TrEMBL record, chain A:
InterPro entries: ANAPC2 (IPR044554), ANAPC2_C (IPR014786), Cullin-like_AB (IPR059120), Cullin_homology (IPR016158), Cullin_homology_sf (IPR036317), TPR_ANAPC2 (IPR057975), WH-like_DNA-bd_sf (IPR036388), WH_DNA-bd_sf (IPR036390). GO terms for molecular function: ubiquitin protein ligase binding. This is Anaphase-promoting complex subunit 2. It comes from the Eukaryota. The keyword Ribosomal protein does not apply. SUPFAM superfamilies: Cullin homology domain, Winged helix' DNA-binding domain. The keyword Cell division applies. Residues 1-18 form the signal peptide. Residues 500-787 form the Cullin family profile domain. It comes from Cucurbitaria berberidis CBS 394.84. GO terms for biological process: cell division; metaphase/anaphase transition of mitotic cell cycle; protein K11-linked ubiquitination; ubiquitin-dependent protein catabolic process.
From TrEMBL, chain B:
It holds the Pfam family zf-ANAPC11. It is found in: Nucleus. GO terms for cellular component: anaphase-promoting complex. Residues 84-106 are annotated as: Disordered. One of its GO terms (molecular function) is cullin family protein binding. Pathway: Protein modification; protein ubiquitination. It comes from Cucurbitaria berberidis CBS 394.84. Residues 24-78 form the RING-type domain. InterPro entries: RING-box_E3_Ubiquitin_Ligase (IPR051031), RING-H2_APC11 (IPR024991), Znf_RING (IPR001841), Znf_RING/FYVE/PHD (IPR013083). Transmembrane segments: none annotated. This is Anaphase-promoting complex subunit 11.
Length: 914, 106
């Protein structure tokens, strides 16, 4: 014992330091006597009044002390060795020390109980502690925690038994005896229990437990216990996805047995004093994790079929599964409060709901994709939204998912649109007010707006008929969205009442805006998917786009009644208001009116029949109806009379009637249309002239301009060995093949050639260009088409001939076949690129010369300029406007630089090359 | 090979028989467009050519002529406005029975 410890002990009595070992019987060691002190303990004498009576008592006490301590001292090995019998001497000593005069007085002398406690402590430290420390020194592996805890608990229990037995047997009876006769001291009423006999065993136990608890590394103990409880919970609830990564056994365990084991352990731990705060803390940890595990393992599955929320079930589990377990454990640990309050249950339910919701939100995107099957999960999230902070979490998490999984260049616009629609629908279910939707959809809308093809996809999908060829049209990468089309197919609800609902004072169902709504929140009809799509853009932009697409669509449309188009236009007018829609309405009116004009012009033609031009209308054989009133087929796009023509012989005998149907457009309101010009077949040309003159006669002061490239027709080709029919070909395709007919001058030559190889008239590209005054590109496109149809064959470079007789020889046939396949592909690609409406890029390339000249002139006059300025000047100055941006200007400048006209001076500044 | 055309659907654009990029002197809209009140061009919003060779949308010039201050003069040249007679025939032409009733000028 070093000096400083001694100094410390002299001021603050430390029991461990002053502990006396029992004195042997033979040579009673009465300790040392300090001057003026007495026997007994080192400190015993210090505070005793140095009086005679005191002296005497001290001696007596010393004797009794040594006797009692000798009796009570613990054996070295902790087994319960039979104690020596209490002798009379011992009884007297005990009696004297515990209840008699030798009793310690208010801590001035060491009491026997204190001594015994100390003895236990020392004994424990000497003999037991080492073993336990050995057990707990290292990290406890998870699977051993049960065993170690068991073992520890057993060891403690045993030791506790050993320590308690002498105490209960030899000390307690005296104390109890004493209390029954003593009176309660009024001096310290509050702490009276400490002095009473009941308090003694409690205190002793507490001290013991403190010793036990002290010898274990507390954190490690808490962790192990927490794990054990978690494990128990997992097994009891048959959780199979666990935090610890342990795979559960396949065979279900006997939960009853297991519950028993857990209860025993807990009760045991509680008995040895390990069930205090730390155990409760461990328990709280365990239950926390257990809740998570349970939700992950049992509730993360989505019920794709019954589409029900699992929240009620979860709540039930909390109440009927989780709470009883908690109660059981609390009871085992003998907590002060062993029953669970209803508020706690609901708090736990909310907690569980929060966790479930968070887990669900993490995969919300998948649920949206799988809408409507994921309804159950969405309903779960809906419940979750009532939890505080849930909305923020949902918004941020979902936005993240969207930006990671949806808004990237890899996703097609159609896909994004489809997902957007799913989002609209599922969020409508989630929160009918639409605040969340608005928040979540903002990035999608912004992104969709940036994509060029969005408007086209939306509008063409809106115009698609669901019923025909559904399977082929809506493949994953197609330009049509099934979702939009089906949305369109739904009945036409009345969305007309656009009146400001906020000002409708009579509205008894008025509700204030949701408090979390953003300023631009509008009370939208959330379920109206089309409304969302149509409001993606500024109205003007959208209507412009609509005009282009509708124009193209109307020209291609096959339905003479234009039902879908009318419907779409009405729908858009309802939702976006009908101003600014003039162009679209005019276009629609044009195509509808064209039917009537056709009819009336045809009527004038038939009445003034000039046999050379118009052979009798074949419809005149049908029951005659007034032309203007014919409702369904005023202008059949598909020839109704194909059956008449099918047998080739009859078609040759009968003079084939040819009708010209025209669509008369109000060019001002249509988007810019293709106006490549070329020579249409002479026959058509005459008809067109005739039509034109009649039109001009009916509508005074008006001229017609034929847009040759937009026409289409159906033809029959008669070869030497076969007859083929083609419907709905473009005008230039017909014109090209028409040009392959032998000219009167060639008739003879063609006949001669027809003999070998089965080839008819041959023409090369240049000839065709001259004959038809057609663009080379168009000529080649048409040629590719006809090669694809096995009508033409490329006999030498750029020269094509008609295949009058299909080759029978296999090699030639194969070659033809291959060439046809290749050409067909080419033609298909090219056809996809041709549109009736001019695209921006067409426009740019068309006007390139003007623009280049303008730029050169401007740069020459005004010196070098940055690109922005050039673009700005062009927008202001170029005749007819300059609808392009800086990028196009840069492109133009690049081309001009390559052509040596301008030179880049760096930093976006350009100048004229000198 | 013989090509027989069975059917031909052509597309044509109509224009008023007026010089290009000229606008109605009153509403400043191109002739091919409508006056500011109409929706559909053509039959519903015809042009009217005066003897002074100034032409306007019919609705535009009518509403102009109705005003007191116009004194029935052409707004361009201040001569008394009279429509050319040929226009009258054209107008009657417009109302031939072949025309469906709803497209006739108002």
């Amino acid at each position: 014992m070093d000096h400083s410890t001694l100094v410390f002990a002299s001021v603050f009595p430390v029991l461990a330091l002053s502990h006396t070992t029992p004195t042997p019987i033979a040579t009673p060691d009465l300790g040392y006597t300090a001057p003026g002190g007495s026997f007994g303990s080192p400190h015993a004498g210090r505070n005793v009044e140095a009086q005679g009576q005191g002296q005497h008592r001290a001696v007596k006490r010393g004797l009794a002390w040594s006797c009692a301590t000798r009796f009570l001292s613990l054996p070295k090995n902790s087994s319960l060795a039979p104690k020596p019998q209490r002798t009379r001497e011992v009884v007297e000593a005990l009696n004297y020390l515990l209840v008699g005069e030798g009793r310690s007085e208010d801590g001035k002398e060491e009491g026997l109980v204190q001594w015994y406690t100390n003895e236990c402590r020392l004994h424990f430290a000497k003999h037991i502690r080492a073993g336990l420390e050995q057990l707990w020194r290292k990290e406890i592996e998870l699977e051993h925690s049960w065993d170690i805890l068991d073992e520890t608990q057993r060891a403690f229990e045993h030791v506790q038994g050993v320590y308690l037995e002498p105490f209960l047997e030899h000390i307690l009876p005296y104390l109890q005896q004493d209390t029954s006769s003593s009176t309660v001291r009024p001096r310290r009423p509050t702490q009276m229990i400490e002095d009473s006999a009941d308090a003694a065993p409690w205190k002793f136990r507490r001290d013991l437990h403190a010793i036990f608890a002290h010898c274990l590394p507390s954190q490690r103990y808490t962790k192990s216990l927490s794990y054990v409880l978690y494990d128990a919970g997992c097994r009891l609830f048959r959780i199979y996805i666990r935090h610890d990564g342990i795979q559960p056994r396949m065979t279900p365990e006997n939960t009853r047995e297991f519950r028993q084991r857990m209860t025993t352990l807990l009760q045991g731990l509680e008995r040895v004093g390990l069930g205090g705060d730390s155990a409760q803390e461990a328990f709280a940890h365990a239950m926390n994790k257990l809740l998570d595990s349970f939700i992950t393992s049992h509730y993360l599955k989505v019920d794709w079929y019954s589409k029900k929320s699992i929240v009620p079930h979860l709540k039930m589990w909390i109440q009927d599964g989780f709470c009883p377990l908690v109660e059981l454990v609390l009871e085992c640990l003998r907590c002060e409060q062993s029953s669970i309050l209803p508020t706690e249950v609901s708090a736990w339910q909310e907690m569980a709901l929060g966790r479930l919701g968070r887990a669900r939100v993490d995969s919300l995107f998948d649920f949206v994709i799988n809408w409507h099957k994921s309804l159950g999960a969405i309903l779960d999230i809906k419940e979750y939204l009532n939890v505080a902070g849930a909305k923020q979490h949902l918004t941020s998490s979902f936005s993240q998912q969207i930006s990671r999984r949806l808004l990237h260049p890899g996703a097609t616009s159609t896909y994004i649109l489809n997902i957007y629609i799913s989002i609209i629908r599922s969020f409508h279910e989630l929160e009918p007010k639409g605040v969340l939707l608005e928040r979540v959809a903002r990035p999608i809308r912004r992104y969709l707006k940036e994509r060029e093809d969005t408007a086209r996809i939306i509008i063409s999908s809106l115009l698609t008929d669901l019923s025909d060829e559904t399977g082929s049209k809506f493949s994953s990468n197609s330009e049509l969205s099934y979702e939009i089309a089906s949305e369109m197919a739904q009945p036409f609800a009345n969305y007309g009442q656009e009146a400001d609902e906020e000002l409708n004072w009579g509205d008894m169902n008025w509700q204030p805006l949701p408090q979390d709504a953003s300023p631009e929140y509008k009370k939208s009809k959330v379920e109206d998917v089309i409304w969302f799509l149509l409001t993606l853009w500024e109205r003007d932009d959208f209507i412009n786009e609509l005009r282009n697409i509708l124009g193209d669509h109307l020209l291609r449309c096959q339905d003479p009644e234009y039902e879908r188009e009318i419907r779409l236009l009405e729908l858009i007018k309802l939702r976006l208001g009908d101003d600014k829609m003039q162009a679209c309405e005019v276009m629609l009116r044009d195509v509808l009116d064209s039917n009537r004009i056709n009819a009336s012009i045809r009527a004038t033609i038939t009445s003034s029949t000039s046999p050379a031009l118009a052979t009798p209308d074949r419809r005149s054989r049908e029951p005659q109806t007034p032309e203007g009133l014919r409702p369904r087929t005023p202008r059949p796009r598909r020839p109704t009379a194909t059956s008449h023509l099918a047998p080739s012989t009859s078609s040759q005998v009968q003079p084939v009637s040819l009708t010209l149907n025209a669509q008369i457009l109000s060019s001002f309101f249509w988007p810019l249309l293709r106006d490549d010009t070329f020579r249409v077949p002479a026959q058509i040309d005459t008809l067109q002239k005739e039509y034109e003159s009649r039109f001009e006669r009916i509508k005074g002061m008006r001229k017609l301009r034929w847009m040759d490239a937009l026409g289409e027709g159906s033809i029959t080709l008669d070869f030497d060995d076969r007859t083929e029919e083609f419907d709905r070909l473009t005008s230039w395709q017909i014109s090209v093949v028409y040009a392959f007919q032998p000219q009167p001058s060639e008739e003879h030559a063609a006949k001669k050639r027809a003999g070998k190889g089965g080839e008819g008239v041959a023409r090369n590209v240049q000839q065709l260009e001259e004959m038809l005054e057609m663009d080379e590109g168009l000529v080649r496109q048409a040629l590719a088409f006809w090669v694809g149809k096995s009508v033409l064959r490329e006999v030498s470079h750029d020269t094509y001939a008609v295949i009058e007789k299909l080759p029978s020889k296999s090699t030639l046939a194969n070659a033809d076949h291959e060439a046809a396949a290749a050409a067909e592909e080419l033609a298909a690609v090219q056809a996809a690129e041709t549109n009736a409406v001019k695209s921006q890029s067409d426009l740019l390339s068309e006007k390139k010369d003007i623009y280049t000249a303008f730029i050169v002139g401007m740069l020459t006059n005004q010196g070098n300029m940055p690109v922005q300025r050039i673009a700005m000047m062009m927008r202001m100055m170029v005749q007819g406007g300059f609808p392009f941006g800086i990028d196009e200007v840069k492109g133009l400048l690049g081309e001009m630089e390559a052509g040596g006209k301008v030179v880049g001076l760096g930093g976006d500044v350009w100048g004229v090359r000198k | 090979m013989k090509v027989t055309i069975r059917e031909w659907n052509a597309v044509a654009a109509w224009r008023w028989d007026m010089p290009d990029d000229d606008v109605c002197g009153i509403c400043r809209n191109p002739y091919d467009s409508t006056c500011s009140k109409c929706k559909f061009p053509g039959d519903e919003c015809p042009l009217l050519l005066g003897v002074c060779n100034h032409s306007f949308h019919m609705h535009c010039i009518f509403s102009w002529l109705k005003q007191e201050s116009s004194q029935e003069k052409c707004p361009m040249c201040r001569q008394p406005f009279k429509s050319k007679s040929q226009d009258a025939t054209a107008a009657t032409d417009n109302q031939t029975p072949a025309q469906a009733p709803d497209t006739s000028p108002i």
